[in-house]
Amino acid sequence: MSLHASPSSNAFVPDETNTRLLRDAFGRFATGVTIVTAATDDGVAAITANSFSSVSLTPPLVLWSPDKNSRRFAHFASATHYAVHVLATDQNDLCWAVAKDVHALNDHDLQLNAEGVPVLENCLARFECTKTAVYEGGDHVIMLGQVNRAEMREEGDPLAFFRGQVGSFTAH
Question: 31-162 belongs to which CATH class?
Answer without folding.
Answer: mainly beta
